[in-house]
Design goal:
With 156 residues, the chain is of the alpha/beta class. It has one domain (18-155): Rossmann fold, CATH 3.40.50. It has helices spanning 27-43, 62-71, 91-110, 124-130, 138-155, and strands at 18-23, 51-56, 77-85, 114-121. A 4-stranded parallel beta sheet has the order 2-1-3-4, sandwiched between helices. It is globular and about 55 Å long.
Length: 156
């Protein structure tokens, strides 16, 4: 069987610049996502001076700010971090759907990798689990996906 050419991203963040766009709404959860993303990127070689944290009001504002950061040319990747927790109204569906679509569009329109670390959970307990307890830390996962995508795109 012939060898298949494989392109994979190396998890080396040295020399890369990242924007972290984080919502203040549910900040007690989002702060854990930010800490996880920063820890991951610095453990993989990023310099803290090459990380820019942008605080925004809520997740709904995320696509616009992420697009501005990505289009600036100053960042190799953007990591979006937030938490939308279901309540008793349909607000959750509107916000979570628009944020997911908007962040995906930023990547497609700018060509800059954007990590989706926005929790969309049914309860506070689920959010806590995904922000560093038994469900892992989705901020870490979003940073890792962004880094790997940057390194894959460099090879294509």
């Amino acid at each position: 069987m012939p060898h298949i050419k494989t392109i994979e991203g190396q998890l080396d963040a040295k020399g890369l610049k990242f924007a972290l766009v984080a919502s203040r709404f549910n900040d007690f959860i989002v702060d854990k996502l930010v800490s996880g993303a920063v820890d991951y990127l610095t453990r993989h070689g990023a310099d803290r001076a090459d990380l820019t944290l942008v605080r925004i009001p809520g997740a709904f504002e995320m696509p616009l700010v992420a697009k501005k950061m990505a289009a600036s040319g100053a960042y190799d990747g953007v990591v979006c971090l937030g938490a939308v927790i279901r309540g008793a109204t349909p607000h959750f569906e509107y916000v979570s759907s628009e944020v997911a679509k908007g962040v995906a569009l930023v990547t497609l329109e700018t060509g800059v990798p954007v990590g989706f670390g926005v929790l969309t959970t049914d309860s506070l307990e689920q959010a806590i689990e995904r922000a560093g307890s038994k469900g892992g830390n989705k901020g870490v996962e979003a940073a890792a996906a962004t880094l790997e995508t940057i390194r894959v795109l460099e090879q294509i």
